Structures are given as C-alpha cells and as structure tokens.
C-alpha cells in the first residue's frame, strides 16, 4: 500500500486536468499526447474539449484510496520512468502496492493460459531465479504461466498489469493472488475503475511497440527490459500483448521452449 504524502512535480491544477482529460470518452494515450502538444497543457485542453467533471475524478480517486491505492499521473515522480519514455505512455495509472518496484530492472514473463504442468513449473523456476538475481517479474495475472510467474516472484518483487480496472480480478480464481500482490508487490492498470476485462482490452502482440525507446535511451535509463514469451506458440495472448507491448520495452520477445 502507499504510505506517506504524495509528492508532485506537476502543478496540482495541471495534474487534475490530466486526470480529467485522460478519463474522458474517446481520449486514449495517443489522443491525450496530441492534445497536450496542440493545446500546450491539459488545463488548456480541458478548457476547450468536452471532458469529464472534477467530481468524476474525485469519486474514482476516493474509491481507489479506499482500496489502498492512488493515481500515478504522467509527470509524477513515482510514475514509472520506463513508461514515461514511450511516445504513447499511459497518461494515468491506477496503482496498489509498492510504488518503488518499477524503478528496479523488470522483466515480463508471460505465456499460455493453458500451460502444461511442466510449463508452469518451468515458468515458476525461471521467475524465482530471475527474482533472486534482482529482477522484478511483471505479468498479467492470467491463468497458467502468468500465475506461476507471479507466485514464484512474490518474495522478490512482482507487478501484475491488469487489462480492466484495478478492481477487476480476472480470472476470479486468482482473487487470493491478487490480494497477495497488492500486499507484497504492485498492481497496475491504465483503465478506469470498474472497467471490465473484455477481449478488446487485451491487445494482440505488437512488436513495433516493444523497443519504442532507442537502445541508447534504454541504456542511459538503466532499465534494460526483456520479454521471455513462454508457451504462447504464436497465439494471441492477452498478457503477452499487454505486458510485452504496453508495459515493457527492450528487445523483441524471445520464446522459451
């Protein structure tokens, strides 16, 4: 859970405007960044465009705080620097758990939901070994490979990236794992509170977005991310697309057989 006061680099009014702009209908990451560039600030954009009211943001913020979380807005010190470097960085993240985890070297370990017992065991062993070596393991809280990776990395650091709102536990049988990650790791979502985990929220693999940040920028940031893709066998998998293309950057996926 988040402890202590929230430290801001953004002017409070601009931060609030970014929240309003990001949560408005038909405003995705690309449109958000285009609006900032066109209007010069979120405050100016909100003065011109039809955006959600401050009351809507206040209600979501209150609900998130009651769950022990908070917003991470692009421009906040706690916002993951690896994401901030992307051209289409999510404007807002809902976060519950340890905000310091994204600052550590992170590796996304994702794969098939219907992984074999041997595949799950191997994913767990790999996650545990990488965790012991100092890596935070990111995955998508899905069945199979994701679950094995999260469970094995709880003691060393794990991030669950959710496709729906941060309150949406999917699959339901991972409710206990969700709670343990909230207490020991980090839950992240760029969707609004209550947004369901529907199929279109799981993007297909997009290799052109993995590696959006140049190699020099990545090396200077000190955050070299990788993406082992275990057991997916070329199929469209939600965690592969979401974690691989959205929340990590670095070399293209490598498949572990």
List keywords for this structure.
six-stranded mixed β-sheet, disordered C terminus, alpha/beta, disordered N terminus, elongated, 257 residues, three-stranded parallel β-sheet, 38% helix, single chain, 9 strands, Rossmann fold
Descriptive notes:
This protein is an alpha/beta fold and 257 residues long. The chain has a domain at 101-256: Rossmann fold, CATH 3.40.50. It is 38% helix and 13% strand. The strands form two sheets. The protein has a six-stranded mixed sheet with strand order 1-2-7-6-5-3. It has a three-stranded parallel sheet with strand order 4-8-9, sandwiched between helices. It is elongated, with a radius of gyration of 18 Å. The chain starts with 11 loop residues before the first helix and ends with a strand. Residues 1-7, 203-227, 234-248 and 251-257 have low confidence and may be disordered.
How is this fold's topology laid out?
Layout: H1 12-22, H2 29-39, H3 42-48, H4 54-66, E1 69-73, H5 81-84, E2 92-97, E3 106-108, E4 110-111, H6 117-132, E5 136-139, H7 145-153, E6 158-161, H8 175-184, E7 186-189, H9 215-221, E8 228-230, H10 238-246, E9 254-256
Parallel strand pairs: 3-5, 4-8, 5-6, 6-7, 8-9
Antiparallel strand pairs: 1-2, 2-7
By secondary-structure content and strand pairing, the structural class works out as alpha/beta
Q: Report the helical percentage.
A: 25-40%
Instruction: Name the helix and strand elements from N-terminus to C-terminus, one letter apiece.
Output: HHHHEHEEEHEHEHEHEHE
- Placed side by side, the strands forming the largest sheet appear as 1-2-7-6-5-3
Poorly predicted regions are: 1-7, 203-227, 234-248, 251-257
**What do we call the CATH topology of the domain at 101-256?**
Rossmann fold
Q: What value does the Rg take, in angstroms?
A: 18 Å
N- and C-termini, Cα separation: 36 Å
Number of helices: 10
Quickly give the CATH architecture of the domain at 101-256: 3-Layer(aba) Sandwich
Overall geometric form: elongated
Main sheet properties: 6 strands, mixed
> Total number of β-strand segments?
9
**Mean pLDDT metric:** 80
How much of the sequence is in beta strands?
Answer: 5-15%
CATH class of the domain at 101-256 reads: Alpha Beta
